[in-house]
């Protein structure tokens, strides 16, 4: 009995095999963590600086508006570019661009009268560089580990990002409040510089000889491929439906102050989902034994919506924190299995373009969801907005799973695309050996 319990407990442990076996995976994971942790200091400092200079909430929100067009245009173009050039070089060049933008923000913060227009220009430029970089990083990720290790590698990568999300904003807030905005940009500059230098240690990852230069036709081919494959389409639609229907973050200030009467614990609401996601990652060993990834995504996304809805009914903030943590754990599981489907089935020559499409689906759902939550809350109440969003999320995700039967039936052991990629990787690894 005791031995059986220990065996089950061992199945929960995060699998460290990719970390032990791949030097480039370690570099990507550590550099990504440093990059993300550093950027969190700027994530806190920039809106604080904008509000301090303008005393306008709209001015802070306008930063999102100036970022949308670069994200859409260069996200798609960056995906096409990632299928044609050395992805390592893309990480280096775009990382250097973000370092330069951060240096301008730091210089502006050191002025006696910082200029608002410079902040907006830097926001647009940073969105451009990030949109060009992420498809290359996401497309490179599956090539640095063995095909069979992708679920474990995805979990480890998520754990590193969650740690940065937990620690970064908290430290950034303390630094902004004590030392000042310029210090926060200084820390971000150091983090981005270190991460970009680490990319130099990666070996080159050139694309195949049949790759084509970026073009509108190539981007359209990527979109057609994503739509034609219902298993891929399901990963995008489930995420967009779940985030659009149940995205309560914009309501946290009102929920904490007006509904739960606990304004001092507002920060805990923002951290709860990250705590749940980190716990889910640390116990993610079980995921490598799951093969029906499509239904795992659907069930996890439905659990996200259910947890959000229950949190909206919370009689106390502690009740809400527990269920927001459950929601964060469910969202992590959903995201993990979506990433495994992408990494194990998309051909390398299409991976960059599909990463660009995934980035857009990841962005558009939350942006629309925040607008929906705010509108419903203004028309009804904060609780009604959160609870109704959770209910609509569960219904929408269930309808998506029912409509996209290929997605629901997806099995990594037998799916033709997964089998093809597994065989190609096995042959490539045999040639390298």
Structure description:
With 433 residues, the chain is mainly alpha-helical. It folds into 2 domains: 17-205, MFS general substrate transporter like domains (Growth Hormone, Chain: A); 215-432, Growth Hormone, Chain: A. It has 18 helices and no strands. Helix 5 runs antiparallel to helix 6, helix 7 packs antiparallel against helix 8 and helix 10 packs parallel to helix 15.
Summarize it.
The protein is mostly helical. It has 18 helices and no strands. The mean pLDDT is 86.
Radius of gyration: 22 Å
List SSEs in N-to-C order.
HHHHHHHHHHHHHHHHHH
Total separate domains = 2
Large-scale geometry: globular
Described by its quaternary structure, the protein is single chain
CATH architecture field of the largest domain: Up-down Bundle
Tell me how many strands there are: 0
| CATH topology group of the largest domain | Growth Hormone, Chain: A
- What is the residue-averaged pLDDT? 86
CATH class of the largest domain: Mainly Alpha
CATH superfamily of the largest domain: MFS general substrate transporter like domains
Biggest beta sheet attributes: none
- State the helix count: 18
- Low-confidence runs of at least 5 consecutive residues: none
What is the strand content?
under 5%
Task: Give the termini distance in whole angstroms.
Answer: 42 Å
Helix content: over 70%
> Structural class, from secondary structure content?
mainly alpha
């Amino acid at each position: 009995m005791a031995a059986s319990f220990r065996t089950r407990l061992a199945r929960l442990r995060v699998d460290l095999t990719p970390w032990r076996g791949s030097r480039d995976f370690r570099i990507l994971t550590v550099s990504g963590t440093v990059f993300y942790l550093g950027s969190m200091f700027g994530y806190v400092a920039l809106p604080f600086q904008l509000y301090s200079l303008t005393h306008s909430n709209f001015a802070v929100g306008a930063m999102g508006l100036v970022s949308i067009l670069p994200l859409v245009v260069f996200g798609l173009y960056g995906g096409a570019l990632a299928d044609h050039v050395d992805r390592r070089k893309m990480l280096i060049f775009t990382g250097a661009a973000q370092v330069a933008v951060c240096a301008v923000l730091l210089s502006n913060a050191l002025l006696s009268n910082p200029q608002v227009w410079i902040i907006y220009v830097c926001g647009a430029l940073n969105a451009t560089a990030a949109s060009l970089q992420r498809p290359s990083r996401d497309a490179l990720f599956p090539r640095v580990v063995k095909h069979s290790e992708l679920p474990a590698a995805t979990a480890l990568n998520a754990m590193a990002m969650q740690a940065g999300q937990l620690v970064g904003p908290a430290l950034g807030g303390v630094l902004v409040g004590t030392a000042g905005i310029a210090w926060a940009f200084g820390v971000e500059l150091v983090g981005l510089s270190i991460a970009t230098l680490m990319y130099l240690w990666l070996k080159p990852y050139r694309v195949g000889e049949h790759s084509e230069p970026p073009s509108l036709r190539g981007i359209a081919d990527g979109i057609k491929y994503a739509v034609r494959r219902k298993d891929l389409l399901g990963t995008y639609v489930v995420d967009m439906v779940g985030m659009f229907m149940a995205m309560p973050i914009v309501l946290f200030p009102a929920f904490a102050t007006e509904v739960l009467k606990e304004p001092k614990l507002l920060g805990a609401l923002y951290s709860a989902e990250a705590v749940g996601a980190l716990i889910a990652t640390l116990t993610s060993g079980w995921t490598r034994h799951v093969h029906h990834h499509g239904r795992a995504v659907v069930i996890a996304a439905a659990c996200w919506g259910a947890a959000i809805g229950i949190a909206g009914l919370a009689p106390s903030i502690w009740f809400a924190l527990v269920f927001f943590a459950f929601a964060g754990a469910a969202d992590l599981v959903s995201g993990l299995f979506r990433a495994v489907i992408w990494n194990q089935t998309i051909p390398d020559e299409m991976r960059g373009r599909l990463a660009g499409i995934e980035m857009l689906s990841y962005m558009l759902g939350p942006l629309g969801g925040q607008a929906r939550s705010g509108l419903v809350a203004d028309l009804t109440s904060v609780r009604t907005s959160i609870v109704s969003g959770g209910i609509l999320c569960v219904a929408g995700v269930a309808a998506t799973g029912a409509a996209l039967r290929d997605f629901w039936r997806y099995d990594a052991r037998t799916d033709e695309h997964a089998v093809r990629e597994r065989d190609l990787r096995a042959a490539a690894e045999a040639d390298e050996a």
